[in-house]
Amino acid sequence: MRFLEAAKGNTYNFTVEESLAIIEAAPEHWKAFFWLLAETGMRPGELAGLKLDGVNWKAGTLHIEQSVWQGKLQTPKTTTALRTFAISSELVQRLRAYERDHWMRNGLGLMFASQRGNPLSMDNFRNRILNPILKKLEIDKKLKAMGIKRCGNYAFRHMNATVMDEIGTPLKTRRHRLGHAQIETTMTHYTHKVDADDRGAAEAIGSMLTPIAHSIM
């Protein structure tokens, strides 16, 4: 299977291998954060706004109902961004471990927050957490050689979209999982039943990320 490394312009797609390496190199508390970005393809601001009770452990799903923009919680402006989708059984196990051992409790009920209990600033997160990892793995040199001046957490989203395309995930499922707006209105509610295609995409990508998981559990 071949994965695109970069789209046109200055948009970069992490490869699956790079995503695995980043997860492995991340500080323990942030491994689950990067895994969530890689497997789900959610927007970084959506992950920053993800609630602890947004995980349905029994059903194996995540519910997106808010995001963080410039340090403040906000409700997405489009109904397509408000969604529920499947996560892999491997990711459910990882998140259960973090719920028990690593997540910082905060008054906002967020899954991840700053040391002061505030919503994460994704710009600060990129500068303080992601960039040092890219430097350690020498991915920064690759970016420089390609003429890409900045690479942020969105590179996981681009990777996720590329992988779903490569494994033949139906377009309707891709659009729903990524929260993209559609020309026709197909959702009458903010959530929809998790179907076989949705579950299949989650399990397929989750299995790609599992090898590293086994070595760090």
Can you describe what's shown?
With 217 residues, this protein is mainly alpha-helical. It has one domain: Intergrase catalytic core (hpI Integrase, Chain A). Helices cover 48% and strands 7% of the residues. Helix 2 packs across helix 7. The N terminus and C terminus are likely disordered.
Quickly list its features:
mainly alpha; 3-stranded antiparallel beta sheet; two-stranded antiparallel ribbon; 9 helices; 5 strands; 7% strand; globular; disordered C terminus
- Beta-strand content: 5-15%
Q: Quote the average pLDDT.
A: 83
Spatial extent as radius of gyration: 16 Å
Helix content estimate: 40-55%
Distance between the termini: 27 Å
Task: Give the topology, please.
Blueprint (H helix, E strand, L loop, with lengths): L15 H10 L2 H13 L3 H5 L6 E2 L4 E4 L2 E3 L2 E3 L8 E4 L2 H13 L20 H15 L2 H7 L8 H13 L4 H8 L17 H21 L1
Question: In a nutshell, what does this entry contain?
Answer:
This protein has 217 residues and is mainly alpha-helical. It has helices at residues 16-25, 28-40, 44-48, 89-101, 122-136, 139-145, 154-166, 171-178, 196-216; strands spanning 55-56, 61-64, 67-69, 72-74, 83-86. The strands form 2 sheets. Strands 1-2-5 form a 3-stranded antiparallel beta sheet.
